[in-house]
């Protein structure tokens, strides 16, 4: 379940920057949102790989 907790923290950690960018037009916050989304993408891929590995091990 550690994967899920890290995923939640990544998303919750971007909340303020999303609000600053979309509601106040803060461009620096937009840069942080983009970086956070990239981190989220990388983490999602790691989870996908881990799930696939676990499925492959279970089917053997």
Supply the number of helical segments. 3
Largest β sheet strand count, sense and barrel closure: none
The overall number of domains is: 1
Gyration radius, rounded: 15 Å
Question: How are the SSEs placed, and which strands pair?
Answer:
Blueprint: H1 2-13, H2 15-24, H3 27-58
Please explain how this structure is put together:
- By secondary structure, this protein is mainly alpha-helical.
- The chain has one domain (2-50).
- The protein contains three helices and no strands.
- The protein has helices at residues 2-13, 15-24, 27-58.
- Helix 2 (15-24) packs across helix 3.
- The longest helix is centred in the last third of the chain and has 32 residues, at 27-58.
- The two termini are 23 Å apart.
- The model has no long low-confidence stretch (mean pLDDT 94).
Brief characterization of the structure:
With 60 residues, the chain is mainly α. The chain has one domain (2-50). Helices cover 90% and strands 0% of the residues.
Name the descriptors.
60 residues, mainly alpha
């Amino acid at each position: 379940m550690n994967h899920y907790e890290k995923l939640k923290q990544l998303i919750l950690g971007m909340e303020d920057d999303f609000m600053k960018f979309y509601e106040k037009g803060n461009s620096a916050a937009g840069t942080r949102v983009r970086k956070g989304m990239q981190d989220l993408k990388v983490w999602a891929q790691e989870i996908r790989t881990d799930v696939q590995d676990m499925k492959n091990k279970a089917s053997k």
